């Protein structure tokens, strides 16, 4: 029973971590695009 709970908790934490890291990468890309667009306007 302990291993079963450990696997479920590990799976959920891995899913949450991958989602958060994916979103942070998307935010970083959006910020870089925003900065690049501002520099091109000048």
Automatic annotation (TrEMBL):
Domain of life: Bacteria
The protein, known as: Uncharacterized protein
């Amino acid at each position: 029973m302990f291993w079963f709970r450990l696997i479920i908790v590990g799976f959920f934490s891995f899913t949450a971590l991958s989602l958060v890291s994916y979103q942070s990468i998307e935010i970083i890309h959006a910020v870089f695009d925003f900065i690049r667009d501002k520099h091109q306007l000048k």
